[in-house]
Specification:
The chain is α/β, with parallel strands linked by helices. 43% of the residues lie in helices and 14% in strands. The structure holds adenosine monophosphate (AMP) and zinc ion.
């Protein structure tokens, strides 16, 4: 059965297949803005997209190109750099490195190409230039360039903004694009190029329209064109990107290139925490580090992010994360009992994944097998299921295992000594742990404890 996925534009399930004769599947996923640590909501979107990428690679081996950008210049990144008295580059490098480390811990595959907005200024300027020449864009008095929404008949097809009541639609447009400021001919127009302002500091590039920086939407149109060509197979992101970001990307790309931009649009829904939208003020905004500090493994977070259907909102709770830890433990135990056997039992797991990325369906089908016991079940196919879901069972052991409190207290002390480079103390504590029957294994960002065999 081919992979079927809901298409947000045509509003129906459509099979995924490469549209180009070279058989290469072209997949673009909007990436993070690198000005702070990504939160677990962002990671829901990236983990869901990672499962999609893994399925595509199993389906079209060696023929998938996955591009995910880094937004490294915008109001937020510039503000952060200004507030901290650092260069934009220093700030975005720090948070890019952190994003990579978190993605690795969550076992998300790196995209094949990870382009940055600041690395593609020329491509963005070229695209804006074409839009100017074709009459789809205009330069305002202050030197900013705007896309003229009325010049593109297809505007609103993705978000159906024109189908809603005119007033509601216009209000929506006003609200979301108000930040693009004052010099526009029409409130619905959006910025392609933002003229330099004092608060932008040194973060400015030359252009035919004067110094400034690209608008946000144009970066994805330009990077997608450069790395995947004019027409791509699949474009994805979280639900908030559907409008205006993706609507604007379609307008820019289709007016510039004169051809279809994306065959398929996929939007996953947001993560809520304890039933509410995540926010710093509610104290319910978690990063991966927050959860690691509570003793959870990154793999448990990955699992917890997959227990809900990606096209439904998912409510995250710490109880859910505990349940994820024990589900992983069951999977680890189950794996130890497997040898070669029946591969077919896993067909319902793959069928669920192929049916609109139904991850809860897949996990349910998997646990039906686990609960029947390991007899006759094929180990290699089980591993293939883990690969598709990106569940690395080896990395999932929770750092404190089942060690008693006095053992973890000693281990914590040794970990701290080691981090403080107090090797003598660290050695002495290791000996104490050994004498008590425990082996402490160090990894890059934590440790595991194993009882010594008697
Ligand atoms: P940003 O770094 O803000 O551009 O967001 C990166 C990705 O995370 C985008 O695809 C967003 O749609 C997605 N995202 C933001 N908030 C959430 C959330 N609460 N749940 C799931 N995805 C989110
Ligand atoms: Zn984008």
């Amino acid at each position: 059965m081919p992979i079927q996925l809901f298409d947000s534009l045509e509003r129906k399930l459509k099979p995924l297949a490469p549209s180009h004769p070279d058989g290469v599947y072209r997949f673009y996923n909007c990436g993070p803005t690198v000005y702070a640590a990504a939160h677990i909501g962002n990671f829901r979107t990236f983990v869901v997209n990672d499962v999609l990428r893994r399925l595509l690679e199993l389906e079209f081996p060696g023929k998938v190109v996955h591009v995910r950008n880094l937004t490294d210049v915008d109001d937020k990144t510039i503000k952060r750099a200004r507030d901290e008295g650092r260069s934009l580059n220093e700030v975005t490098k720090q948070w890019t490195d952190k994003f990579h480390a978190d993605c690795d811990a969550l076992n998300c595959l790196r995209p094949h190409v990870e382009p940055t907005a600041t690395g593609h200024i020329a491509e963005q300027v070229d695209m804006i230039d074409v839009l100017m020449k074709k009459g789809n864009a205009y330069r305002a008095a202050d030197g900013s360039v705007y896309f003229k929404v009325s010049s593109f008949d297809g505007y609103g097809r993705l978000s159906r903004v024109k189908e809603r009541e005119l007033q509601v639609g216009t209000a929506l447009l006003h609200k979301s694009q108000a930040v693009d400021a004052d010099e526009k001919e029409d409130a619905t127009d959006f910025a392609l190029w933002k003229a330099h302002k004092t608060e932008d500091g040194a973060n400015s590039w030359d252009s035919p329209w004067g110094p400034g920086r690209p608008g946000w939407h144009i970066e994805c149109s330009a990077m997608s064109k450069k790395h995947l060509g004019d027409t791509i197979d699949l474009h994805t992101g979280g639900e908030d990107l559907l409008f205006p970001h993706h609507e604007n990307e379609i307008a820019q790309s289709e007016c510039c290139n004169g051809t279809l931009f994306a065959h398929h649009w996929y939007h996953s829904k947001h993560l809520l925490v304890d039933g509410a939208k995540m926010s710093k003020s509610l104290g319910n905004l978690y990063t991966l580090d927050d959860l690691k500090a509570k003793g959870f493994s990154p793999m448990a977070l990955r699992y917890a992010l997959l227990v809900g259907h990606p096209r439904k909102q998912l409510n995250f709770t710490l109880e859910g994360l505990h349940a994820a830890e024990s589900a992983l433990k069951s999977l680890r135990n189950f794996r130890t009992g497997l040898s070669s056997g029946d591969a077919g039992v896993f067909a319902p797991v793959f069928a669920a994944l192929h049916d609109d990325l139904n991850t809860p369906g897949a996990l349910g089908a998997l646990f039906t097998i686990v609960n029947r016991g390991p007899a006759g079940v094929d180990a290699a196919t089980f591993d293939r299921v883990m690969l598709a879901l990106g569940l690395n069972l080896k990395a999932s052991e929770s750092p404190k295992a089942d060690a008693p409190a006095e053992i973890t207290a000693l281990a914590d002390k040794r970990w701290a000594a080691k981090n403080a480079k107090d090797w003598a103390a660290a050695d002495a504590l290791r000996k104490e742990l050994t004498a008590l029957g425990w082996n402490m294994k160090d990894a890059k960002d934590g440790y595991t404890l194993e009882p010594l065999k008697k």
